[in-house]
Write a structure and sequence with these properties.
Blueprint lengths: L3 H22 L16 E6 L3 H9 L3 E6 L3 E6 L2 H9 L4 E5 L2 H18 L15 H14 L4 E4 L16 E4 L12 E5 L7 H17 L4 H9 L1 E5 L4 H13 L10 H5 L30 H4 L35 H12 L2 E9 L3 E4 L12 H15 L2 E4 L10 H9 L2 E7 L8 H9 L9 H13 L5 E6 L5 E15 L5 E13 L5 E6 L5 H12 L4 E7 L9 E8 L6 E7 L5 E9 L5 E7 L7 E6 L4 E11 L5 E8 L15 E6 L5 E7 L6 E3 L3 H8 L1
Parallel strand pairs: 7-8, 7-9, 9-12, 10-11, 13-27
Antiparallel strand pairs: 1-3, 1-4, 2-3, 5-6, 6-8, 10-12, 13-16, 14-15, 14-25, 17-24, 18-23, 19-22, 19-24, 20-21, 20-23, 25-26
The protein binds N~2~-sulfamoyl-L-arginine and zinc ion.
Length: 704
């Protein structure tokens, strides 16, 4: 596939551009034999005997890999200054790869040999070389063109922000009947190439897309999954950076070409090891060609997109200095490339997300910062991590376990939406190894015998459709009506204001569903209460109730639609939460409403729970006012003759708990297709639960 002759022509064509660009942007360099040999970009192993040392190393802003052990982290040194920084701070290291440029040349040669020896690789696409940026775009387009009912090309409608070099970021959506986009099915999102040099992260993402398309209709497991889920793949999140890295990878062997001076300009791997995007100056569009600047300038340029997301932005393991490898950017979501992913995740219910990176054969789960503690979904996320790593042989650990990182993709997406998110660090040894290794690691061959990312990704997709791990809103609404689910909140960054309060950014989640013929809808959504709020709730409710009262009714004679009231008197003040649960012995469907009785006798609804059949009901009233509460049990569709209602009072944990939310809701509106709002109602739904919402008002108004 990759004929040497063509390769040489490409090199010749690009050389001119590179030399021109670097001459235009940097002071003219003296060329010829007298020039100092450039610093060979190196991979070194830095000793970090303690957690403290590791944190200090992270703070230096060097180019850390994800490869480390209990006592070391591997680091890429791009310049004398990088090495000097280590010395200055008292770090010792050994050299792992003395010249990554030379390694790049070797890899290119191995890649040529692999391509020459391979007709059709075992990858779904059969490819035998790394894709270029153009290849990605061609392949995405072709998938959509060849499978119009199954694949939809995503362009600047869904990914609305062009890259700094004005490229459209592309993706594909894959699903049975893909064009009915707002049909309420859950979304699985896969991302690649946030980091320019991590080529396998784009390859595995893209191959998974091809795999699903090929499996649809022939592989029952894949067919079933594509009927139940919508899969979105954005293989190249950072096209500008990738374009540089991929191009310089091809150029690497130019260092072998001795044509008097050219070697000194591009004689290092330069941008082949580029990590970040192409931002040169905060807030400014970079001048054309500026991303071409050779190493170490080319490396130093840019914002680390995996430090630019809003959740925990600006904290540990991210640098405030633009020249650093982990530069976080001027502010959260300052970069168009992260804004794209934010827009996508905010407008869909991404119940499971994988963001691919390289390297170190790890599956990382939130949080990225050790100090953040374990997430409220730790048992479930750890378990999914284990099921994925059982299939790819990776280690299943937290993001922070190697070192702290803040502002990463899943630390924002998980905290903002509750959708599970993981970083895959693909490959054992290097950022873009010989292509054959990428093939083996996807399909589970060779060294990876029987263990491949293909299987791990399918497990993740199965999780995305598993209602035990997300939420469902379902009910009746007029066919053709547009349901809109909205939620606005503040996401905490790691920065604090003068008073020590966390600085926040504003996030809004907004998605739609069109009610199908038959007037019944099912909407797979993320939980309405965000993880950090849920954590707070569980902490309060984990305390013993300060008082609890149980009401038992037996031999109730009633029909669907009837209700029974019990009165719970609560004279106490300063109560954290009133928790009401409803239980009954048969697999029937009862609903629960909680009302506060006002002095004039009127009832104000302060809580409700209308789960589907079999789910028992629970309503939570935060900071309840003293007085009488009417606990109403409604027979939704039941023959049950007995039930038990329990009301428990819970204290506030600590001063700072006061006024915090324990429950968050979505606002669900029912609209005509022209956008006229006919009904609006708050909806609370927890993970693993189905909340029924019949939009009766809307149905009545819709008929008119
Ligand atoms: O540092 C990163 O952004 C990722 N490693 S990489 O070598 N691909 O650059 C790791 C990010 C995930 N780690 C955490 N969530 N802590
Ligand atoms: Zn990465």
């Amino acid at each position: 596939m990759h004929a040497p002759a063509r390769h040489r022509r490409l090199v010749a064509a690009l050389t001119g551009a590179v030399v021109l660009a670097s001459l235009a942007l940097s002071p003219p360099r003296p060329l010829g034999a007298s020039e100092e040999p450039p610093f060979p970009v190196q991979l070194v192993r830095v000793t970090t005997a303690t957690h403290d040392q590791r944190d200090r190393l992270t703070d230096l802003g060097l180019d850390l890999t994800e490869h480390g052990g209990d006592t070391f982290v591997d680091v890429v040194l791009h310049s004398e200054e990088d090495a000097a920084r280590l010395v200055e701070h008292g770090f010792a290291w050994t050299v792992v790869v003395a010249d990554l440029g030379a390694r790049e040349v070797e890899n290119q040669e191995l890649n040529r040999q692999y391509a020459a020896a391979t007709d059709l690789s075992p990858l779904p696409s059969g490819r035998d070389t790394y894709r270029t940026l153009t290849d990605y775009e061609t392949d995405l387009r072709r998938l959509a063109d060849d499978h119009p009912d199954l694949v939809r090309l995503l362009d600047d409608t869904e990914l609305p922000h062009r890259s700094l070099e004005n490229r459209i970021v592309y993706g594909v959506e894959i699903s049975d009947d893909v064009h009915s986009t707002d049909d309420g099915r859950p979304v699985f999102l896969m991302l690649g190439l946030h980091h320019a040099r991590e080529w396998p992260s784009g390859e595995h993402s893209m191959e998974f897309a091809v795999d699903l398309v090929q499996g649809y209709g022939s592989d029952p497991r894949i067919t079933d999954l594509l009927q139940r889920a919508r899969v979105i793949v954005v293989p190249v999140v950072n096209p500008d950076g990738f374009e540089q890295s991929r191009k310089w990878g091809d150029l690497a062997d130019l260092r072998e070409v001795d044509d008097g001076g050219t070697v000194s300009v591009i004689g290092t791997p330069g941008n082949a090891y580029k990590r970040k995007n192409c931002r040169a100056v905060d807030g400014e569009v970079p001048p054309p060609g500026s991303c071409e600047v050779a190493s170490p300038g080319g490396f130093a340029l840019g914002v680390d997109l995996n430090r630019n997301y809003g959740g925990l932005w600006g904290g540990a393991g991210a640098s405030a200095l633009p020249a650093h490898a982990t530069y976080r950017g001027a502010e959260a979501f300052s970069e168009p490339e992260t804004e794209n992913i934010r827009a996508l995740v905010s407008s869909r219910h991404v119940t499971t997300l994988i963001t691919n990176h390289t390297y170190s054969n790890l599956v990382l789960r939130p949080p990225g910062v050790r100090a953040a503690g374990e997430t409220v979904d730790e048992p479930a996320m750890k378990d999914l991590g284990a099921r994925m790593t059982a299939n790819n042989g990776y280690r299943n650990i937290h993001g922070w376990q190697l070192y702290d990182t803040s502002g990463t993709t899943e630390d924002w997406s998980y905290n903002a939406t509750g959708g599970y998110g993981y970083t895959f660090e693909i490959g054992p040894h290097e950022f873009h190894p010989p292509f054959g290794e990428v093939v083996d690691e996807y399909v589970g061959a060779g060294f990876y015998d029987g263990k491949g990312n293909r299987e791990a990704y399918l497990v993740a997709l199965e999780n995305a459709v598993d209602t035990a791990h997300h939420s469902v809103i379902a009910g009746k609404a007029p066919a053709g009506a547009v349901l809109r689910l909205k939620k606005a909140f503040s996401t905490k960054t790691s920065q604090v204001d003068e008073l020590g309060n966390p600085r926040v950014i504003s996030d809004t989640l907004e998605s739609t569903l069109t009610v199908p013929a038959g007037s019944r809808y099912t909407w797979h959504v993320n939980p309405s209460t965000r993880p950090e709020v849920m954590e707070h709730r569980l902490r309060i409710l984990a305390e013993e109730p300060t008082r609890e009262e149980t009401f038992r009714e037996s031999a109730v004679v009633w029909l669907p639609g009837d209700h029974r009231d019990v009165v719970f008197a609560m004279p106490e003040t300063d109560v954290g939460a009133l928790r009401v649960t409803l239980d009954w012995p048969t697999p029937d469907d009862l609903d629960l409403y909680v009302y506060h009785r006002k002095p004039d006798g009127s009832l104000v609804e302060v809580g409700s729970s209308g789960n589907f059949i079999l789910d028992k009901e629970e309503a939570l009233v935060e900071l309840p006012e003293p007085g009488d509460y009417v606990l109403r049990v409604v027979n939704y569709a039941s023959v049950s003759t007995e039930f038990t209602v329990t009301a428990g009072l819970y204290g506030l944990v600590g001063e700072d708990a006061f006024g915090d939310d324990l429950v968050e809701s979505y606002t669900l509106s029912c609209e005509t297709s022209a956008g006229r709002v006919l009904e609006t109602t708050p909806v609370v739904v927890d993970r693993g639960k189905t909340q029924k919402v019949d939009l009766k008002e809307c149905a009545r108004a819709f008929r008119k």
